[in-house]
Amino acid sequence: MNSRIAVVPGSFDPPTLGHLDVIRRAASLYDQLHVLVVHNPGKEAMLPIAQRLTLLEQSIAESDIDGDVVVASWSMGLLVDYATDVDAGVLVKGIRSQVDVAYETPMAIVNRHLAHVETVFLLPDPAHALVSSSLVRQVASLGGDVSPFVPAAVARFLDTGSRDL
Ligand code: PNS
C-alpha cells in the first residue's frame, strides 16, 4: 500500500464547501487523491450516485484544486477493497467536531484491522464547521437558499435541476 495515495470517501449527497475544503487540503498533501462516492445504507439518499459524481467533478474543475485528483464511486463492497485496488494506504476524513470523532473512530479502527489502511483526520476551515449534507438537503427540500454552503455547481443544480428528484 502506498502512503502517498489517499482516498477521501463519503456520501457527498450533495457535496458541500466543507467537503471541497477537505479535498483541497488532502490534494495538497498526497501525490494522488481519490474522491470516492460511497453509498451509505444508513442514510436516505437525495441524489443518485451518478449525479453526485457529476457535481463533484464540476465543483473540483471550477475550484483552485490541482494535482492528481480522481473522482469515482464504489458499491462493490468494503471501502478498503477500493483502497487496496488503487494501492491507497490512507483514508482522509474531515473532522468538524467531537461528534465526527466519535462517528469516525470506530470506522478508522475497523478499516485498519481489515486492510492495514491508516485514517488521517483533517480539520477543515472553521467557517465550514456547521455545514453538513443533511442540513443542505433539508434546506433545499424546503425551498431555501443553500448557495452559502455548497460549491457553485451544486447551488446551480439544486436551484434548477433538482425539481424532479
Ligand atoms: O459521508 P458519510 O455518509 O459520513 O460517509 C460514510 C462512508 C460512506 C465513508 C462509510 O459509510 C463507509 O466507509 N462505507 C463503506 C462500507 C464499509 O467499508 N464499511 C466497513 C468499514 S466502516
Can you offer a commentary on this structure?
42% of the residues lie in helices and 21% in strands. With 165 residues, the chain is an alpha/beta fold. The chain has a single domain (2-158), classed as HUPs (Rossmann fold). Strands 3-2-1-4-5 form a 5-stranded parallel beta sheet. It is globular. The model has no long low-confidence stretch (mean pLDDT 95). It binds 4'-phosphopantetheine.
Q: What small-molecule ligands were found?
A: 4'-phosphopantetheine
Mean pLDDT: 95
Helix coverage percent: 40-55%
Structural class: alpha/beta
Question: CATH topology, what is it called?
Answer: Rossmann fold
The proportion of strand residues reads 15-25%
The global form is: globular
CATH second-level architecture = 3-Layer(aba) Sandwich
Estimated radius of gyration: 15 Å
DSSP summary: helix tally: 6
Binding site for ATP: 11-12, 19, 94-96, 104, 128-134
GO molecular function, one term: pantetheine-phosphate adenylyltransferase activity
Keywords: ATP-binding, Coenzyme A biosynthesis, Cytoplasm, Magnesium, Nucleotide-binding, Nucleotidyltransferase, Transferase
Protein name: Phosphopantetheine adenylyltransferase
Concise overview:
By secondary structure, the protein is of the alpha/beta class. The chain contains 6 helices and 5 strands, in the order βαβαβαβαβαα.
Topology readout:
Layout (H helix, E strand, L loop, with lengths): L1 E9 L6 H13 L2 E7 L10 H13 L6 E7 L4 H7 L2 E7 L3 H18 L2 E5 L10 H9 L10 H9 L5
Parallel strand pairs: 1-2, 1-4, 2-3, 4-5
Helix pairs in contact: 2-6
This protein binds 4'-phosphopantetheine.
The site of 4'-phosphopantetheine has 11 residues, from β1 and α4.
